[in-house]
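ok trying again, last paste got cut off:
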Amino acid sequence: AAYSATDTEAAALERDLRAALEGEVRFDAGTRALYATDASNYRQVPIGVVLPRTVEDVVRAVELARAHDAPILPRGGGTSLAGQACNTALVIDFSRHLDRVVDLDPDRRLATVEPGCILDTLRAAAGIHDLTFAPDPATHTHNSIGGMIGNDSGGVHSVMGGLTVDNVESLDILTYDGTRMTVGRTSAEQLGSLEQAGGRPGEIYLRLDELRTAYGDVIRRTFPKLPRRVSGYANLDWLLPENGFHVARALVGTEATCVIVLGAKMAKAGRIIAIDTNPGKFELAKQ
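nice, full thing came through this time. structure:
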């Protein structure tokens, strides 16, 4: 059954959030109406909305939602076309405050961003160094990197430099139970150490290891060889040993059903030599 919060339960959650967070907490009817839809035709009125100012705000908001048994929904630019950014949940909007390019390393072609960072903000920062970020949905002026990770976004120029999944190096993540981890490519030695260390992170890695061992051959045999697979858990093949047991890339496309992205390290595409006025006509230097 769909989640339903009574007025008393919603008021209790709002009270606790206001007491614990630096960011904005909005449970008024107007805000809930604004966040009830995205770019789709769906409409689901949220319990309330949080606009966190810090990562610690996000952690506390999830902790309180868990204490109140309330579902959560991370949101970026709200450009989803199939209702992914609206639900009867506590909406956490990253686009207001957690929207920075934290670091940019042009030599390594890597950028560290907050999840609410707008795509064109990253591309403008990269452009100073004659670099770009290849995936570019039509909504690039206002869609967030966190949303692109959730959706495995593409766009016309992803042909030259890959989808979002191909450009994710690592993710800082938070699970609903409060576990914080940094995930990415995992060597056999790292995997063994993580599993031996135990705790919740070790348990998660152990379960993922068991998953790929049990279903690896099925994934190899049945996953279609398509340029873009978008269907929830379409990137499970990144858990295979030949793909580096890349947990971050396996999470791309899962639409925040597994984790919340707190930060991301993204790879940028090739160095631009010339851009024609015709869209998509890029000449790239050899890597």
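cool. The mean pLDDT is 89. DSSP finds nine helices and eleven strands in the chain.
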